[in-house]
TrEMBL record:
Xref: SUPFAM superfamilies: Class I glutamine amidotransferase-like
Binding positions (substrate): K165, S194, R251
Source species of the chain: Paracoccus niistensis
Name of the molecule in the record: Homoserine O-acetyltransferase
Statement: the UniProt record of this protein carries the keyword Kinase: no
Top-level taxon in the UniProt lineage: Bacteria
Subcellular location: Cytoplasm
Function: Transfers an acetyl group from acetyl-CoA to L-homoserine, forming acetyl-L-homoserine.
Pathway: Amino-acid biosynthesis; L-methionine biosynthesis via de novo pathway; O-acetyl-L-homoserine from L-homoserine: step 1/1
Family from the record: Belongs to the MetA family.
One of the record's GO molecular function terms: homoserine O-succinyltransferase activity
Residues of the site described as Important for substrate specificity: S194
Length: 308
């Protein structure tokens, strides 16, 4: 939430230049408040775990959030019970036909990164979701494969297969300390990574509409902004629980897959020991900052979303 300060107090400009939310008394007097409408397009197989992870983060701000769960219309979930999907999710077809608008949209990752985008069965509908988001959503956030898919659709940013899985907790540099999305971030941030693909910094740099906010020397770009469309792409997993990388590692070991111990995750890289969560605070900061930024800038009247 912003702080209201007189516009001629030195702290007004100093804090604002640092990225702190500062408001003049004049603007504060004119603030309208309503619940924010956030949609989660959940493409992950373990949908309940993912609902919990994102709801926990976007639910930790002082603002009232209405969460809508959306699924691809014709995709039958193999790993989440049909009655759960029936009870809590709306198919995108229905959302599109309703004309509903949202302040925010999160598109999750999906374990289909080894496939060309066009071989994902719901690719055509997903492209429709992306185009719809430009006219019905104020701000979008694509996560891991969801971010890569969105960045491919809008910017032609290619993903590349890695020889070895990028797997573990990696240090990332804060490249934009004054960005409102990184308010309160340390200069150096530890983030869970779990993917077989990457996007490359040189491909991002060739697209002037994109800015890199967080990047790692070891696993490359992480958080990218398309400011003109209020869109963020994150290729790593700040939302993961303490044990998510462990679950993925144990699953792959049990399946006999050649997988290394996730880097810098277990104490002394010993998978028999209990991992500790060293990213939770930055997860809350990032998603809290996103919600805050939406709250500051989304139109009060929902029907004005997507017009500017
Ligand atoms: C890169 C990122 O975005 S990271 C995010 C992905 N991470 C995760 O999913 C972690 C958790 N996932 C898992 O542990 C595993 O995927 C499991 C154990 C749930 C299932 O693994 P498997 O049995 O090997 O694969 P399975 O055949 O169930 O397919 C996994 C998912 O991909 C979907 N899928 C597979 N091929 C395709 C395709 N061509 N088009 C669309 N979806 C596909 C499946 O439908 C399933 O999703 P669903 O549960 O929503 O139906
Ligand atoms: N995070 C994913 C990567 C595969 O897409 C997993 O390990 O399941």
């Amino acid at each position: 939430m912003p702080i209201t300060l007189p516009e001629n107090l030195p702290a007004f400009d100093i804090l604002r230049n640092e990225g702190v939310m500062v408001m003049s008394p004049d603007r504060a007097a004119r603030q309208d408040i309503r619940p924010l409408r956030i949609a989660l397009l959940n493409l992950m197989p373990k949908k309940i775990q993912t609902e919990n992870q994102f709801a926990r983060l976007i639910g930790a701000t002082p603002l009232q959030i209405n969460l809508s769960l959306i699924r691809m219309s014709d995709h039958e979930s193999k790993n989440t019970a049909a009655d759960h999907m029936e009870s809590f999710y709306r198919p995108f077809n229905e959302v599109e036909a309703s004309g509903d608008r949202f302040d925010g949209l999160i598109v999750t990752g999906a374990p289909v990164e080894h496939l060309p985008f066009e071989e994902v069965t719901y690719w055509d509908e997903l492209r429709r979701v992306f185009d719809w988001s430009r006219t019905h959503v104020h701000s979008s956030f694509g996560v891991c494969w969801g971010g890569m898919a969105m960045a491919w659709h809008f910017h032609g940013l290619p993903k590349h297969l890695l020889g070895d899985k990028a797997f573990g907790c990696f240090r990332h540099r804060n490249l934009a300390p004054a960005s409102p999305y990184l308010r309160g971030f340390s200069d150096d941030v530890l983030i869970p990574v779990s993917r077989w693909t990457e996007v490359r910094q040189e491909d991002i740099d060739a697209r002037p509409e994109l800015t890199t906010l967080l990047a790692s020397d070891q696993v490359g770009p992480c958080l990218i902004e398309d400011a003109a469309h209020r869109t963020l792409y994150i290729f790593n997993h700040l939302e993961y629980d303490s044990g998510t990388l462990k679950d993925e590692y144990d699953r792959d070991v049990a399946a006999g897959k050649p997988i290394g111990v996730p880097a810098n995750y277990y104490p002394e890289d010993d998978p028999t020991r209990c991992p500790s969560n060293r990213w939770r605070s930055h997860a809350h900061l990032l998603y809290g900052n996103w919600i805050n930024e939406i709250y500051q800038n989304t139109p009060f009247d929902l029907k004005d979303i997507g017009k500017g």
